[in-house]
What does this fold into?
Amino acid sequence: MKAAITTTAKYLPEEVLSNFDLERMLDTNDEWIRTRTGIRERRILRDPAKPTSFMCTEVARQLLDKRGITADEIDLIIVATMTPDMIFPSTACLVQGNIQAKNAWGFDLSAACSGFVYGLHTGAQFIESGNCRKVMVIGADKMSSILDYTDRSTAILFGDGAAGVILEPAREGYGVLDARLYSDGANGKEHLLMPGGGSLNPPSHETIDQRLHFIKQDGKQVFKAAVMAMADVAEEIMERNGLTGDTIDYLVPHQANQRIIQATAERMGIGMDKVMMNIEYYGNTTAATVPICLAELDEQNKLHTGSNLVLASFGAGYTWGAIYVRWQ
Ligand code: COA
It folds into this structure.
């Protein structure tokens, strides 16, 4: 038995932070950001009383509404995030409490930009084993809470957002059919990280002074690794499943940089008309990008029974992977 995505939903904060807004805050400009990344604007959830669990709860309520079920039918909640409300309790528990999913257990999954892809594969296992009937997988990040708005190399890239799916047992031949996931901590750990706040560098006056509670990235290194890894894994999932550029309906890639997405599509031999891309409007929302793309394809009625989707991601860790979904 495989797991099908039966429902999708997304939440994006209303406030838009455009490249022109950033021009007033940093030594950067719209043209540089657009040509190097493809981003024009991103959404920001400025209200400090609305953390990541707020966005997840909005998504969870929409998922229940759209599916027409009550919260007590949910067996498991997985929240993929690198910006949890707190180190503990988990964001998944906060969401479970907010929607009163009294029969659900849950946990947070830390895989940065690959969080949703990792979470989807994980959630699918609980359906495949027969252990769960309804699993919520949500990817959410309040990136504005860990961005250094004095660092132009990272501040321009990210935005806030959340989205998710409900997984349920699939009909024969449909659903999450294959996944290939990877990690490489040896090469990844130095190039993309938030050094402060954990057990290595617990919060102190020094960690604050050294700005260790913000994202640090060597963009060039990450770019090189992402281009190679995302294209390799997408190609691998195609080969394993006998897919070609013609038989794939949509590539649903992580939205970190338009150029990384184009390189992946090129290697897969699929035209940009089959590539879901919304980086222009939301930037990189980390664990939320792939499910936001899915939710938008779904809203636009582009997903039909039998549609072949390849989801692909790359993120801190390094973590990366691709998933083949045959839409039910
Ligand atoms: N505005 C204007 N100039 C900027 C800038 C900004 N926001 N950020 C950097 N620059 C400058 C640099 O200082 C550098 O100037 P120099 O040549 O005088 O030294 C120049 O632009 C080129 O910088 P570089 O970092 O080499 O640019 P790049 O082409 O590699 O693009 C990224 C930078 C971050 C857009 C790109 O590396 C990237 O997308 N990396 C991957 C990011 C990613 O995927 N992260 C998440 C992982 S999922």
Remarks:
- The chain is about 35% helix and 25% strand.
